[in-house]
Design goal:
InterPro entries: Ice-binding_C. The chain is an all-alpha fold. It has 2 helices and no strands. The longest helix has 20 residues. The chain is elongated, with a radius of gyration of 26 Å.
Amino acid sequence: MGVEIMQKLMTALGLFMISSVTWAGTAPPPQPIPEPATWALIGIGAVGMLLARRRK
């Protein structure tokens, strides 16, 4: 379906269509990805908590 036909259909149905989007602002800085050592510490902590819970 062509863009013109889609615009006419959406107008007839009382809807609207965004044809182009621009971004004038600045994007937030990307979040850092945790290093493998961080994941290892989280995993060791989780295993330790599970073992401590089983001992009770």
